[in-house]
Amino acid sequence: MYKIEQIDSGVVAPSGFFADGVSAGLKSDNQLDLGFIRSEKPSTIGAVFTTNRMTASPIKKFRKDGVVETDFILVNSKNANAMTGEAGVSDIEDIFGELESSYKLHNPVMSSTGVIGVRLPKDKIIAGAKSFNLNSRNSDSFSRAIMTTDSYPKEIAFRVTLKSGESFSIGGVAKGAGMINPSMATMLAFITTDAKLSNSEIDNLLQSEVRTTFNAISVDGDTSTNDSVFLLANGESGLSGDSEAFREALQRVMKHLALQIVSDGEGAKKLVSFHITGAGSDSDAEKVAKKLGDSLLVKTALFGEDPNWGRIASTVGTAGVDCSEEKLSIAYEDVIVYDKGENLFSDEVENRAYQVMKKDRFTINCDLGIGTGEFKSYACDLGYEYVKINADYRT
Amino acid sequence: MYKIEQIDSGVVAPSGFFADGVSAGLKSDNQLDLGFIRSEKPSTIGAVFTTNRMTASPIKKFRKDGVVETDFILVNSKNANAMTGEAGVSDIEDIFGELESSYKLHNPVMSSTGVIGVRLPKDKIIAGAKSFNLNSRNSDSFSRAIMTTDSYPKEIAFRVTLKSGESFSIGGVAKGAGMINPSMATMLAFITTDAKLSNSEIDNLLQSEVRTTFNAISVDGDTSTNDSVFLLANGESGLSGDSEAFREALQRVMKHLALQIVSDGEGAKKLVSFHITGAGSDSDAEKVAKKLGDSLLVKTALFGEDPNWGRIASTVGTAGVDCSEEKLSIAYEDVIVYDKGENLFSDEVENRAYQVMKKDRFTINCDLGIGTGEFKSYACDLGYEYVKINADYRT
User: Fold this and answer.
1) Inter-chain contact A318–B51, Cβ cutoff 8 Å?
2) Beta-carbon contacts of residue B165 (< 8 Å; ≥ 6 apart)
């Protein structure tokens, strides 16, 4: 019916989009730290934001303005512009006011990541933004400019070709490398498409697809002050995004970026899926999957490559959902270690489970044996590097 | 009205109690690993247990028997007897059955801590228990026998002298050293008193005092499969425990043991209180205090001695309670760093906050500026040692 193929160029893969990053002196050593995405024609825009009550200023401003259409997103790293009060919002207005002399912008939007509680260095940002080449198509520089503790840039794009031969594209860039996944280590994602979508279509799509992607690597509803996922649609392809093809492509973009974030967990070496089945409901399965992905004891056991299924079982028991030791089964990939009350550990089984845990990517399967509820979460291991990065981060 | 003074001897401080520990070969190197508390006359007993659905066998057995009175508690380390099914419960029955030939026991109770999913080494435990000197009064050996990753034994006792000159005593022993506080690193506590209490008085007292003590170092309702707090009252003093004096003494015992557990957090160097005031309710304050105590980013900042108040603010924002950046204030001890929307950080203030964080014990104060709700939680820092201990624990 339709074909989805991966293509290059991240957020500038869809026609009509431009992006780049510059060094504005926010990071040291002339690293890229300020970027933009520009849409030739105004795009419809929608977003999902953090549930943190201490919402950052750029999100306050977006909501205050009720932005539904824009042609410009400005993104800085090193400063979250959070806990900065009304001044934080007017700083954004000042920046865009200054840029008016250089650029004609339609409802420009700002997004920030970095340290909390410090006012934006407006002058540096204004000077940096004035040095943008607005006709550049450099998604890689944009993705590097928004990195904080990320160890690599994260981008992806797909072209979707319909049976008619017509095609549209969708591309995305994200930053984030939190171990306890978006939790406070800000996660930002920017997705562009040349398909045509209304504002409410965008909001509905993001709300529904975020659950199994960006929110499947999150836990506890813990989110940073700045977490944001934006989707811009400029309609240049002439094709509607209200289709199964678009939804699938969007899901692939979001899943890819989400897994890149968790793989880039601070100091992490492993990407582990917790696949919960047999729960009383999908929501129960989600609670268990996220509880496992959040458990320090589980994450350190992943780091230690220790097939310590007792920690898995105990964590399942704390998720607050219907479960029992007589019905639970646990497997490392296909190596069943505990089956409905029976401990299957032997030296041989333990060794096979250990071989699974030595891999960089694997799945831990838990069947609760109760219903048909299912969910998959994603986590990384937690090792010494995490402590090092986070003990030293601010200074 | 009454006088409370600290005395020696832990759980054997109250008259009529005996305790000791032996090496039963569960731990290596002839370390103490099996202990008992004995009451000359049967004591009334009550307990609060884990909320984990995967309840360990000793707790199942206690509930199944509906124990309200006992003269003997047997405690082993190295094996949790959890996720062991019905066999785990009958193993306990077998052990006490074998001991009948040596000792006359009245409703004996067992408590366990250690690895999950492995059957108890019954023969070792039986042989070890048969070597007990039931007339020993060695609370220290008992407290060492129940240690797992604890780096020191935890015990305390108080004598309470009433205006009349009469007195009763209360003593306690605990084990636990979890960083994410009881969470899965089992917390066991055994409290004895020669005051007289009914079963329901014990249950009510434990339920009400656990909230600000053992549960103030816990988080998220995460508890291990084995967490238990027992209180035994033998009435030997002839005085009632239904008094303000008893409640205060019990609270002091529980608070002391709880703080010893958090101070012994795996690899921890600091004991930090999060004192939340001005919340909409005590329950809101509790949520915020526990969220802070649970945050990896906050704990690693404590380890790094970084007065990174942005992480505090952001964590407050995720607690799911009414709060706003315009009303929040944050202080390290008396050093106010953020006050109702205003960032008070200067080099001097930052340095003063840093001096606070260099201490081994300090309080971080957060006033939400909304109501009169208050709660205090306790946490330790999280450093490299935590990862090392937990990556290597089982093997």
Assistant:
1) yes
2) none
